[in-house]
Amino acid sequence: MSGALTSIGVSSREDLSGIDVALIETDGDEFVASGPSLHIPFRRELKILLRRAISAAREGREGAADIGKAGGEITSAYIGAVENFLEREKIARKDVDIIGLAGHRLLHRPPSDGAVGLSWRIGDGKTVSEETRMDVVSDFCAADIAAGGCGAPLAPVFHRALIASMADRPVCAVGVLTLEAAAARITYIPENATAGDLLAYDAGPGLLLLDDWTGLRKDDDPSRLGAVDEEALSMLLLNPYFRRPPPKSLDGYAFKLDMLLKAEPADARATIAGLIAGAIARSESFLGEPPGGYIVCGEGRTRDGVMAMLGDRLEAEIATAEDAGWRGDFLAAESFAFLAVRSLKKLPLTYLKTTRAPAPVRGGVYHRAPV
Question: 321: which of 142, 170, 261, 333 lies 20 to 30 Å off by Cα?
Answer without folding.
Answer: 142
